[in-house]
Predict the 3D structure of the following.
Amino acid sequence: MALTMSGKKQKSIRSFWAAKIQPPKKVARSEEMVEETMEKTERETVGEIVTAETTEEERVEKTVEETVEEMVEEMVEERMKETAEETAEETAETTRRAEVKVAVAMVQHNVPFAVSDHFSPLLKECFRDSTTAQNFKCASTKTTCIINEAVAPHFKNKLVMKMRDNPFTLITDGSNDTGQEKMNPLTVRVFDSDSGKVVHRFLDMCTTSGRSCGTAEVIFQKMNEVLQKHAIPWGNCVSLSIDNAPVNTGARNSIASRILNENANTYIHGCPCHIIHNTAKEAGLRFLEVTGFDPEDLAVDVGYWFKGSTNRKGYLSEFCEFHGSEYMEILQHISIRWLSLERCLTRLLQQYEPLTSYFKSLNEKQPRFRRLVDAFSNPLTEVYLLFYQATLPAFSTLNLLLQREKSSIFLLHEEMTKFIRKLCAKFLKLAALQNQDVHEIQYKDPSNQLPGEKLNIGFITRATLNRLLDAGDITPQQVERFQQAALAFLLRAVEYAMNKLPLRETLLKHAKFVDVQQRTECGVEDALYFVERFPELLPFHGPQEHDQLSEEFLDYQLMDIPMPQDPATFDTEAFWGNMSSLKNRSLRGQHTLFNRSTRRKAKRTTILLLHVGKVEVLKLGWVKEKGVGGRFFILSILSLVDVSLSSSFCPRVFFMVDMPGTGT
């Protein structure tokens, strides 16, 4: 109200009150002093009010700031805690992965678990700036637990699940008896849809014990228990891979006969690698009967004579210098190693002159030394060695083919036939081989055989033989006996191979259509053979289904498949693996096997056909479609990895682990 009053009125009021409050005996103050006093009082009052308001605002602001700071601090602490927990969890996860990878790598490379006791301190010392290395704690006990209690059960479960739903091959072979229990490792070949390849996995050790631990009944009982335990049907077992022992492949009381009782369609055969090795051995025995020379005995005697003796090796090196040749280590022949004899004999020929001088210069009384002196004193010993050097590659080439990593089932029948013909060409006339099936060759007929001087025994062998004869070091009678021995060797080799190799195996003949290079020489009957061979796995026998298969097979034959510059390097397995995964593309020009529409969820049945011993897997994938007017099939044939068994077969790595970053 004071703001709306006029100046005069305010002044009169102030004067009235000033006069009123003045004591009557004192002099009244002037209006200016009263006005100044009033203004001062007003200013002080307003200041007090403003100060009070400012103090309240500051208090509120301070309270708010303190609250916000507390909340921010709490959030920061919580976030830091979460970050620390995430970092710790991430570090722990990284450390666990490192521990698992190291453990798996040790299994892959057959490294003793005791080595892992040194890893933790070693990694901490070498990688001080790495959190993972500093947290790495995986000694032998933990490594064992990781493999046996974590990795192995995981991959075994995956294997069991695949075996329940897919065809597979069983592979087994007994170990040497070194304790009270006999190990019969049971491994499996099965198609892995993730990698598009056939994988080889360990299933169970199948240990047996007691007096009958090595009988077919006990071994099969263990195998059957393993499959029943994991609910794996015998109907999915399409092949059994075993060696040629009677307990394995006998017609009645054997493992094979018992498996055939469970699944009559299982394909069973012995090991061709053993057969090739035994073929050379049987031929060598016939050569021994005629000449008295055994290359294995010579290789073993020479190897053991120099083994572990630095003095003898040093003496031999002096003879090498004398003859102007380089000293080379004498190789040790192992009779159970199929390919070692050829290498040992080649090494003996490389060192033949120094060895001859060595044994002729010394005078030792040991029986082995006297045998070696007699051998190197005989001029024909070099001829014998050269003959074996020229002949053994025919055996080792086929043996290596059977042991290769790539698929070879589609080549096996042709390669075995070539092997027989190659041996026959060494001692038969050309007319006896031309236009003749391998089973129709009359190789035992003397009229079809070449004379001794025309036998194909190797150019160097023939030249050395003639040189020794011209020099008078050997007689014509010795030459004749050697030629008879060479003929006996070749005859026995052909005879044994014809009787033992699976040349009449129908499956191998029909498997050739898997090879894209031989597809034009085959017919749809080759594919139909597998449908008829496994009617339960491929229940597609109607006329319409056969017509559909014929169309797809014709499309396969008409495909334009680019080939590498060297056709031998073509990866057949990879080709079929890719083909089986393709859908909805036209065959011609796009390299598929079908042209379909309206694809729905499909059910694929796979068949593994293995040539046992040198196990070969053939996979025919058929897709059964629904909702498109009946059954349709996709021809998807995969030639898969083969396996070679020997009498000493035992997997070194029980679980082949596929871990990221391990290269496994």
Remarks:
- The first strand starts at residue 168 and ends at 172.
- Residues 170-265 form one domain.
- The mean pLDDT is 79.
- The chain is about 55% helix and 10% strand.
